[in-house]
Design a protein that fits this description.
The complex is a heterodimer of chains A (275) and B (115).
Chain A: E1 15-20, H1 28-41, E2 46-50, H2 58-61, H3 72-76, H4 82-85, E3 87-88, E4 95-98, H5 111-121, E5 127-131, H6 138-144, E6 149-154, H7 158-173, E7 177-185, H8 187-192, H9 198-205, E8 209-214, H10 218-225, H11 236-248, H12 263-270
Parallel strand pairs in A: 1-5, 1-6, 2-4, 2-5, 6-7, 7-8
Antiparallel strand pairs in A: 3-4
Chain B: H1 2-10, H2 16-33, H3 37-54, E1 55-57, E2 63-68, E3 73-84, H4 93-96, H5 100-103, E4 105-113
Antiparallel strand pairs in B: 1-3, 2-3, 3-4
Classes of the chains: A alpha/beta (275), B alpha+beta (115).
Chain lengths: 275, 115
Amino acid sequence: MNTRRDNAGKKDLGEVIVITSGKGGVGKTTTTASLGAALALRGQRVLVVDADIGLRNLDMMLGLENRIVFNVVDVAKKICKPAQAIIKSKKSNNLYLLPASQTDDKDVVDEAEVRYVLEQFRREFHYILVDSPAGIEQGFRNACAGAESAIVVTTPEVSAIRDADRVVGLLSSKGIESKLIINRIDFEMVRRGDMLSVRDVQDILGIEILGVVERDDQIISAANCGEPVVYNQKSKAGQAFTRIAARVCGEQVPVPTFDSGSFWSRISRKLGVNA
Amino acid sequence: MFNALKKKLFGESNESKETAKSRLHFVLVQDRTGLTNEEMAGFREEMVKVIEKYFVIDKEGFDIKYHRLADTTTLLINSPVIVRRSGSASKPSRVTDSEPENDTDTETAAVASNV
């Protein structure tokens, strides 16, 4: 995800990243909105695309639900000009949304049409983040069409991890490399041994970890207000997405793991000694 | 060794994440290979037989993992080898002594395949 801008000689086309998970409700849309906003804060021109046709929500996360005129299906079917369908974020001049259609079916567009839509914007944006619907059916295949890489979002729970594994396999068979975001981790539960650690999840899935986002109430209040959590730098989740954006841009930022540590620290914990 | 001590001190692990790990480990091997339980058990049994032809192994520690790397998928067969079978009767004492957990060399057979 970080070499494109080094190729100064090449024509400067935006990088298309699909954000997916298999399982629903793990934070794909929140991740898309937050990462998009964080990249925009870094001065990157970002388009976030809602590929969840029929169940659009990315507009809500960005507080743009009242400004929608055209949508991704209108662009695909050439009902409007590409530039007419994208909506500028309230908070940033660098962040734009291409909303999903709320009234169509997921199979109203095909993969070729999605590729056509993305091509219309690749010259204008540094990053195009495509928010995939849950599942592995047509909506997922559409969201992956034209993606150069993938961010797979999971939570440290068995069902989310199993689905993430399936999705990583499917993406890999399409030649798309996946990186992982572990969302909603609770380091206190990890410490008690009641939640899989970052290291556990990485061992199980075997893919590079792009970031770790702590469970954070601020995510809910940010969504309530339609303002991505990265604008609140007191929020741990906001800070996490800021670090993830830096990594997407190729910066080396260490991933915090807070792993359960050595045998001795575990013993002292069991004995109730806070090391 | 520390694990053994820990188990003695605190009993078996009651951490639910260990259950999660072993359940995931089990289900992902099935998901990734597309093999059923029976097929997987059969595969395991046959692998043990093949390795036992050449080595004395600790069957308890025998383990099959299915690792996905960037562009290859690797079947990792981990088999603790207690002693090499050398045809003639050689040092059988090593086979029976002490706990295999502390006293075995671990040889790893890895089969890489693009799946």
